[in-house]
Design brief:
With about 160 residues, the protein is an alpha/beta fold. The chain has 2 domains: about 100 residues, 3-Layer(aba) Sandwich (Rossmann fold), CATH 3.40.50.1820; about 40 residues. Helix content is about 40%, strand content about 15%. The protein has a 4-stranded parallel β-sheet, sandwiched between helices. Helix 4 links the parallel strand 3 and strand 4. The radius of gyration is 16 Å and the shape is globular. It starts with a strand and ends with a helix.
């Protein structure tokens, strides 16, 4: 048995993998766990990938998206911003034509104080569940998985038991 977990853009990738598994008639995962991401059929509210470096950095710093130490290394910072910009562009371009239901339990996790993904946006994942669905908000923001690792790991472990 296996489960699929994805955080932020990884949640959308995990969803596509679960849908692809079902389309091929393969053994479904024990669960799909998605974290801190809009549902696949919800359009992006605002684009940020087309901002210049200063604008993108300001946006990332507004919620702790880039370690402050990185600013001491301009070459690495430029590389990190290029990488983040590409990830954001992929995320912004992705939109499923409609909610395709996954053939396994769907568990949604998010940060209670996430400025990017609201609880209402997380609730829209319910449209993608063919059966069991759960939504759990944990302390923290978009990076709750990293800043509150013990609570996040406990939630993941509890969900998979």
């Amino acid at each position: 048995p296996y489960a699929i977990f994805g955080h932020s853009f990884g949640a959308l990738l995990g969803y596509e993998i679960a849908v692809g598994i079902a389309r091929r008639g393969l053994t479904p995962p024990r669960a799909l766990l998605v974290s801190a991401a809009r549902s696949p059929h919800t359009p992006v509210r605002r684009r940020v990938s087309d901002r210049d470096d200063a604008g993108l950095l300001a946006w990332l710093n507004s919620f702790g998206g880039i370690p402050s130490e990185l600013s001491r290394y301009p070459a690495y910072l430029r590389y990190a911003l290029r990488t983040v910009r590409r990830d954001l562009a992929l995320t912004e371009a992705y939109l499923a034509p409609g909610p395709e239901r996954v053939d396994c339990p769907l568990h949604v996790l998010g940060g209670a104080d996430d400025p990017l993904i609201s609880g209402a946006q997380l609730e829209r994942w319910r449209d993608c569940a063919a059966g069991e669905f759960s939504l759990r908000l944990l302390p923290g923001g978009h990076d709750y998985l990293f800043t509150g690792a013990p609570a996040a790991l406990d939630a993941l472990g509890t969900t998979l038991r």
